[in-house]
Amino acid sequence: MRYYSAKADEAKPDADAKDEAPQAEANPLEAQLKEKDERIKNLTDDLLYSKAELLNLQRRSAEEKKTMGDVAITKLARDLTESIDVLDLALKSVPEALRAAPSDAAEAPRALAELYDGVSLTRKSIVDMLRTHGIEAFNPMGEKFDPKLHEALYQAPVPGKEPGSVLDCSKTGYMIKGKLLRAAQVGVVQESA
Q1: Cβ pair 136, 174 in contact under 8 A
Q2: pTM of the entire structure?
Q3: Of 30, 50, 89, 113, which one has the greatest count of Cβ atoms within 10 A?
Q4: Which portions of the sequence form the region Disordered (predicted)?
């Protein structure tokens, strides 16, 4: 049998109130803590996203910079290859016998030989400079004709030569970093009829 006293009844609600008070105080703190955790998570996600975007932007910028440099070099290289063609024509116009004059030769042949040497050195200097920038010349003489690399100017039947091979190279071709800069202009051996 249990006896109730008024003091016990009064004490009991106070105990319940004391238990509810910490829970009431804990709930707002828990809610604030959850809210802060969610905010931290969102800010962390935003930070990681921003870092990824920055890295992508840096990578794209570096690629664009490289591409722009390659485009600029390509335009200059095309112009310089035309200059090399002109120098080649000048060198071919000097007869073999006059390309190297002895020191006791008359002034005119010696001057022509020196001019030939100067033009030859200028051509070599330009070709070397292009090579340092990844531009290589190619002469497909004797190779199989490749329409991706060669521009056929004419065809001629030549006995004893393999049909479809390059017979003559009028203009040297150029590659820039493994890509075609200018196709070689060639004559191709035609099949005999």
Answers
A1: yes
A2: 0.62
A3: 113
A4: 1-35
DSSP state of 98: G
Query: Is 176 within a domain?
Result: yes
Predicted confidence (pLDDT) per residue in 150-164, tens digit:
999 999 998 888 899
The 10 Å Cβ neighbour count of residue 43 is 10
Token pair in block for residue 104: 């006791």
DSSP string, 148-163: TTEEEEEEEE-TTS-T
Structural domains in the chain (count): 1
Domain range for 167 is 134-193
Measured in degrees and rounded to the nearest 5, phi and psi for residue 143 equal -85, 165
> Quick check: 165 and 187 in contact, CB under 8 A?
no
